[in-house]
Amino acid sequence: MKRAAAGGVGDGENSVDAREISKLEAYLKRLFGNARIRVVPRPKKEDSAEVYIGDEFVGVLFVDDEDEDRSYNFQMAILGTDLE
User: Fold this and answer.
1) Dihedral (C-alpha) 73, 49, 59, 33: value to the nearest 10 degrees?
2) 23, 25, 53, 57: which has the highest count of C-beta atoms within 10 A?
3) How many angstroms separate the CA atoms of 75 and 61, rounded?
4) What is the mean pLDDT of each run of 10 residues along the chain (84 residues)?
5) What per-residue confidence (pLDDT) applies to 2?
6) What would the DSSP string read from start to end of the chain?
């Protein structure tokens, strides 16, 4: 198995490296106007990263490389109790 470059996470084409995480974090901060957004590597997962606002987990970013045009899917679950 080929390892990611230094500072990276995981292996293979779907892995997310530290530079990519930094770019994703900067993009989300600009998009949502929130400097408290953090994007961090997922433990034991190589194709995704976790998204937090402060210390609160809000979702997961998944890498999509299927059509040779790298993109990302953001998945966020909203529980009924969150709406109360």
Assistant:
1) -80
2) 25
3) 6
4) 35 78 97 97 91 96 87 94 92
5) 29
6) -PBPPTTB-SBSTT--BHHHHHHHHHHHHHHHT-TTEEEEEPTT-SSEEEEEETTEEEEEEEEE-TTSS-EEEEE----GGGG-
Contact by Cβ (8 Å): 4, 15:
yes
Distances (CA, A) of 30 to 26, 51, 66, 76: 6, 14, 27, 18
Q: Is 27 left (phi over 0), alpha (psi -120 to 50) or beta?
A: alpha
Q: What is the pLDDT of residue 39?
A: 97
Q: What is the pLDDT of residue 15?
A: 85
For β-strands 48-53 and 71-75, DSSP reports them as: unpaired
Q: Is 63 buried (19+), middle (13-18) or exposed (0-12) by CB count in 10 A?
A: buried
